[in-house]
Amino acid sequence: MTTSNHRFTEAERRGLYRAIHERRDVRSQFLPDRIPPDVLARLLEAAHHAPSVGFMQPWDFIVIESRSVRETVLAMHEQENQKAAERFEGERQEHYRSLKLQGIMESPLNLCITCDRSRGGPHVLGRNSIVETDLFSTCMAVQNLWLAARAEGIGVGWVSILDQEQISTVLNLPEHVYPLAYLCLGYVSEFLDQPELEAKGWRSRLPLSDLVHGDKWGQPLATRWSDAL
Ligand SMILES: Cc1cc2c(cc1C)N(C[C@H](O)[C@H](O)[C@H](O)COP(=O)(O)O)c1[nH]c(=O)[nH]c(=O)c1N2
């Protein structure tokens, strides 16, 4: 077989798909082991190589080890989680309350990935009407870090049951910086085979074949892909 650098080897391809399929949102399986600085640096490099609109690179990475900051964030989460539980009723609410939805203290490291909404100045290439493209770009950085972490054997849990204004206050963020993702990072005892929400019976993965359309909302049908799914 001819090799060329624009095509991954079979092993490289398998590695990439493995990271994608075996990445998990982790909150219950964290180990206390410290993440070595060079490993954290690799994760942050991976995040920093995400695509961004107009190459604006709107992210900053706030590395949080302080127990007292994490305790404050946990208390904030508990307050928000109480409100969140009340949105469900009866058995569903009980089920919700039984779920563990964060690993703020069990993980050795928390990381807030922020989005600087003014990065790149007022006119960013590609960010005209759709001003949220800076937020989308920052999400790409989160996903890059999440996948790289999986390849390193490190679990990541995204905690969004938080009030963003409270997080901004605790982290001293200026007005134009949005706390996009509050993450918990650490080595794990295991990566579950399926999403924890699926394992606990909260919600299942939808069949891909139900989600790929040519004509669901009346669009012209280009090609039928369903046989391949
Ligand atoms: C933007 C965003 C925000 C959150 C999440 C994800 C994303 C993308 N997820 C994780 C989510 O529940 C999880 O990704 C799905 O259940 C699928 O599981 P896997 O990620 O495949 O393990 C998540 N999980 C959790 O326990 N508490 C949370 O606050 C959040 N918040």
TrEMBL record:
Its EC number is 1.13.11.79. It is an enzyme of class 1 (oxidoreductase). Keywords: Flavoprotein, FMN, Oxidoreductase. Pfam families: Nitroreductase. The keyword Transcription regulation does not apply. The keyword Oxidoreductase applies. GO terms for molecular function: 5,6-dimethylbenzimidazole synthase activity. Residues 20-187 form the Nitroreductase domain. InterPro entries: BluB, Nitroreductase, Nitroreductase-like, Nitroreductase/BluB. PANTHER family: IODOTYROSINE DEIODINASE 1 (PTHR23026:SF90), NADPH NITROREDUCTASE (PTHR23026). This is 5,6-dimethylbenzimidazole synthase. It comes from Vreelandella neptunia. The gene is bluB.
